[in-house]
Structures are given as structure tokens and as C-alpha cells.
């Protein structure tokens, strides 16, 4: 078949579709919904991936978070063994600092043994804040971007002084139009003096709000003497991340008396490892959504096949006439396949527009998720929709191609 014949076949296909607009639209409605859903889900997952990845990588390429179980998406599915692991201790952090040559800095983070923390200043209250006890090294490791004042020192931690550094939303919510430096703040019934405020991080595990309250580690121990849950934030020397992980693992296995034949009873989490874990989850989610969305494509394909069979019946005389003047079986086959592909291809384009609309609505509703339609999803949508037309159009096209021209010309 020549290029001119293909071109004429495409023109004929679009003329046929134009002549039956409503029928064509209803025929490919399933294709539109299926393609649009795949595009919309791809856009949302792409935006969600970008958002979570920026959060995870905000810890820095050389940072290692040491905790009793893995930090990140997989914490929702802890094994019974992980749930019963003993907490890390302050001495573990001291040993890492002293014995690991590839480590630049170490900061211990102590969590309170209470669920909800409230803060208060002169009639202003904020609820459910994020309270941690940390060391001076926490700020040196790039986890803090100061706005006003200063960060506390290790000496203040050893002396257990009642000082605090607060996040940007607490600064605005409690001290509107007031310089917070030197002002008191009541945290869970204990009064502290604010010595510094932090800028909102570009990305955070704790959501869009910055309600952090950081206390010196020693002060936190004094405030919550029964708190024992520690995390250790380690900064590796440039280019020595892998070596630092090996050294930390060796030190902790010795400290925690883990037998040689047993696996680690702690976890080392890096930004790239957490991103990899998260993307495994999103890949499975996308696969499930793609399978469910394919049901719409299947329904649309069956509709295309039925309408094409009707079209073959309606155009039996036209097929017989074309064969009588020299059209070959392949010419008829290609003509109807092109018509089916053009029909579902237009449905695919409409589906892309529908998916783009879904992504725009999600951006307005969920402002923290930068949903956008990736190029590969748009291309995949077109390829799948055209493929559906070709696959489900084979039977009607073959039926048209096999018609006997004499019998077809007699058909009325």
C-alpha cells in the first residue's frame, strides 16, 4: 500500500467519524476514561514523588539517621522483632563519635515519652508541636537554618539550662509583632527562654507547618527523665558515606552485643536509601492503578469492536463497490484498521486532556503536591489508545476484507 493510499484511508476515517460524532464519542468514552485515569494518576504520583523525594533528600547527601528501625515509608510495616528492639542510647552516639574515623559529626536526638505537646505564651497557645532534645552538632550538620538569635551550645546542654530554639510557625503564632529572643515560652508546663528561631525548612517530614521546639539534650533529659528513645544523626565526611556506614554498623553491633550470626537490631537510613524505598511503594501503587484503569480501556475496546462491526454491515455495498473497481483485501483491511485507530487515537487525546484537568484540580486542592503530566505518560496514553483500536479493530476489518464483492453489491 502506498503512502497516498494510507493518507486517503486516514482522511476517509476522519470523514466517517465526523459524520457520526455522537456515536464516535460514546464509542470511545471508555478509552477517554481509562486513558484519563492513567494520565491523572501518573501526574499525581509524579508530583507526590517529587514532594517526598525533596523531603527525604533535605537531610543531605552525607547524612545518616541511626534508629532502632528504618526511617521512611517502610515504618508503616514493622515486624514484631523490630517493634521490640531496645532503644539506642547516648553512649552509642559517644562511641560512634570516638571510634568512627569517617564520621564528621554526631548528634543525638531524644524524643519525649508523651504524645501531644502544647506551648503557651501570654494567652497564645499552639498545639501538637514537634519537641526534640538535640546537641549543638545537630545545627552543624545542616539540619537547622537560623533566622533570629543563635543555637544553644553543648555547654548549655551539659548545664541543662532552660533555653529553646523554635520553628517559624511558632515564632509567628506566639510572638506576632514581637521579638521572641529573650521571651519565655511554656512547653508542656515547663518554662524556657527563647534564644533563637529557625527558618522553615524547604522540605520536612513533619508537613507544611514548622512547629519545631528544640531543647538542649541535657535539658530534655531533665524535663523527661523517663524518655529513652534516641535517634542519632551522623554526618559522614565528604565522599566517605559508605565507609562511615560500615564503621557505624561495626561499633553498634559491638555495643549492642549482636551475635555474629544474627542480623542488625538497628537501622542506618540515608536519603538515597529512603528515596529508593519510597519509589518501590509508588511503583506498586501505579501498577495497581494502571491495571484498574485498563478496565476502562477494555470496555472502550469492546465498544469500538461493536461499532466497527455495525459500520461494516452499514457499508457492505461500499466495500463491494471498492473491490469491484480493484481494491485488494489488504486495502480494505488497512482502511478499517485506520478508522479504528483514528477513533481510539482521538479518544486518547481527549483522555490526555481529561488527565491534565485531573492534575490541575489536584494541584489546587493539594498545594504541597506539584502534580504535572509527565511526557512519558502522555506518549504511553496515545500508544495504548491507538493499540486498543488496532487490536479490537482486527476482527471487523478482517470481516470487511473477506466479503465477496458480488454478494456485497447485492446487499441493501
Low-confidence stretches: none
Mean pLDDT: 82
Helical residues, percent: 55-70%
Number of helices: 15
Q: What string, H for helix and E for strand, traces the elements in order?
A: HHHEHHEEEEHEHEHEEEHEHEHHHHH
What's the gyration radius in Å? 32 Å
Could you tell me the number of beta strands? Answer: 12
Strand content: 5-15%
Structure write-up:
There is one protein chain. With 412 residues, the chain is α+β, with helices and mostly antiparallel strands. 56% of the residues lie in helices and 15% in strands. The protein is built from 15 helices and twelve strands. It has helices at residues 3-19, 21-27, 29-57, 80-83, 90-99, 136-143, 154-158, 168-174, 217-223, 241-255, 271-314, 316-324, 329-365, 375-401, 405-410, and strands spanning 63-67, 103-110, 119-121, 124-126, 130-134, 146-149, 163-166, 184-187, 190-198, 212-216, 230-236, 267-270. The strands form two sheets. Strands 3, 4, 5, 6, 7, 8, 9 and 10 form an eight-stranded mixed β-sheet that branches. Strands 2-11-1-12 form a four-stranded antiparallel β-sheet, with helices on both faces. Strand 3 and strand 4 form a beta hairpin. Helix 1 packs across helix 13. The longest helix has 44 residues, at 271-314. The chain is elongated and about 105 Å long. 38% of the residues are buried. The model has no long low-confidence stretch (mean pLDDT 82).
